[in-house]
Amino acid sequence: MASNNPVLNKIEELKPTFIKRLSDAIAIPAVSGDESLRPKVVEKAHFLAKQLKDLGFHDIQLKDLGVQPPPVSDSNLKLPPVILSRYGNNDSKNKKKTILIYGHYDVQPALKEDGWDTEPFTFYLDEEKQIMRGRGVTDDTGPLLGWLNVVQAYREAGKELPVNLITCFEGMEESGSIGLDKLIIEEADKYFKDVDTVCISDNYWLGTKKPVLTYGLRGCNYYQITIKGPKADLHSGVFGGCVAEPMIDLVHVLQSLVKPNGEIQIAGIKEMVAPVTETENQIYEKIDFSVEELNQAIGSKTSLYDNKRDILMHRWRYPSLSIHGVEGAFYGPGAKTVIPGQVIGKFSIRTVPDIDSKKLDQLVIDHCNKVFAELKSPNTFKTELVHDGNYWITDPFNKSFTAAARATKDIYGVEPDLTREGGSIPITLTFEKALKTNVLLLPMGRGDDAAHSINEKLDVSNYINGMKIMANYLLYYSED
Ligand SMILES: C[C@H](N)C(=O)N[C@@H](Cc1c[nH]cn1)C(=O)O
Ligand SMILES: [Zn+2]
Ligand SMILES: [Zn+2]
Predict the structure, then answer these.
(1) Is the torsion defined by CA of 51, 57, 61, 65 positive or negative?
(2) Alpha carbon distance 155, 149 (integer Å)
(3) Which residue's C-alpha comes closest to atom 6 of ligand 1?
(4) Ligand 1: centre distance to CA 139 (Å)
(5) Which of 27, 71, 344, 416 is the most buried (most CB within 10 A)?
């Protein structure tokens, strides 16, 4: 009886050890998008490999993915390794199912001056509120370590793990999972040959109270526009008015992409979006979510929609275009009178069924070239794809989802909502296709965890209960 699973008590007992493990991992600033921090990403891979070894995982391999392809400043920059390892083995007497656990150990950039209350790479535990803070606690270091902790709990409870595990932990997810597709395809009939299913814990509940299981993701195509003019930044008093300013060109192109109401202005994208079906129309009402919960999570009342249905549809099943930032532009405090000589504007499009990724790239590049040509600017202009990752959608009633729903009900006492996710995990579809299996998304954190934002957090209760769900999920999946 899994609700009496002694491993659950062991998880409670080992809470201080599990919090310490997370604290140690958070201290390594493994920011994949910052080339200067690449050694730290590699350091975190070694940290995890050691933890895996100490916990009895074997056949641990740090897979080299070679050099990072352009656009990149350092053309010799090596990609961080993918960590493959096994727990348990299939011999003739021991025919257990095998679950591949995917997670990522890299994190988004974070600086204290972005507005964090504490140093982002110094783990902070709010003892009173029982909330842990630090870059990566919820995305995705906490959930990734959850699996290691569960193995430790099984071992220390004297219980055999009911399944075999294979880990695939990458260090480039926040930068488009570059290089991982190829590795998965290569290893499909080798390291991954016995995999029965894939489980990913790398997204969040929709709100703050109700657990969810996730059966869909949006994709993400990330672009950059580079505009070059003067060979260095200039004094705007001396040169303003007589030079073509890259930043002015960029603002024109960026504003042409999307309206303030979120409507994408690039011709041809809307037409690729799958129409809403009657079955789909009915799912939104049943989901436990409110406009107030959205406002709470964003910390303001600036939602574009005032009802649950529209919010969910625009988060899950419609594309969105976000403008992320401008490299080379002045952004510090004060009033610097400068004309930036070169600027790089960054934006991405979250993709949904049935957007064709390659067709989208062409539409984006054609649109940007056309708008820039209309400016008749003497500056140089280039739009390029930085990375892409496909959307994904699956059947939420297969064996893996059923096992996870049972495990969730054991711990939280309610059936989880079945949700889609507005974010992206680029590798999900590759696992499904290359390993010819299904993928379950089993989120640990809450919708207000502030992943990618300041003061990223994970409630201690979500960390602990998330591991209890994992522990029972392994058991239920093994029984089926
Ligand atoms: C949902 C997941 N935890 C996540 O944050 N994914 C990132 C992946 C990504 C895609 N391009 C860059 N990063 C996301 O959705 O932004
Ligand atoms: Zn992320
Ligand atoms: Zn993530």
Answers:
(1) negative
(2) 10
(3) 424
(4) 9
(5) 416
What ipTM was predicted for this assembly? 0.97
Q: Pick the atom of ligand 1 nearest to 174's CA.
A: 13
d(CA 348, CA 220): 7
| Side-chain-side CA neighbours of residue 403 (13 Å) | 23
Residue 97's nearest CA partner among 201, 195, 200 is 195
- Identify the active-site residue in 140, 170, 173, 417: 173
Spacing of C-alpha 376 from chain mean position: 39
Cα torsion 282, 287, 292, 293 to 10°: value is -140
Domains and CATH numbers, the chain: 2-218+391-479 (3.40.630.10), 221-274+317-389 (3.30.70.360)
Q: Do the Cβ atoms of 393 and 400 come closer than 8 Å?
A: no
Locate the DSSP E strands across 301-379.
Answer: 320-327, 338-339, 342-351
Residue 146 Ramachandran class (φ > 0 left, ψ -120 to 50 alpha, else beta): alpha
Q: What is the mean pLDDT of each run of 10 residues along the chain (480 residues)?
A: 82 98 98 97 98 98 96 94 94 84 98 97 98 98 98 98 98 94 98 97 96 98 98 98 98 98 98 95 93 93 96 98 98 96 98 98 98 98 96 96 98 97 95 98 97 98 98 95
Task: Check if the beta carbon of residue 184 is closer than 8 Å to that of residue 439.
Answer: no
The residue type of 221 is N
Burial 20-53 (b: 16+ CB within 10 A, else e): ebbbebbebbbbbeeeebbebbbebbebbbebbe
Q: Catalytic: 480?
A: no
Q: Which residue has the tokens 């957007």?
A: 355
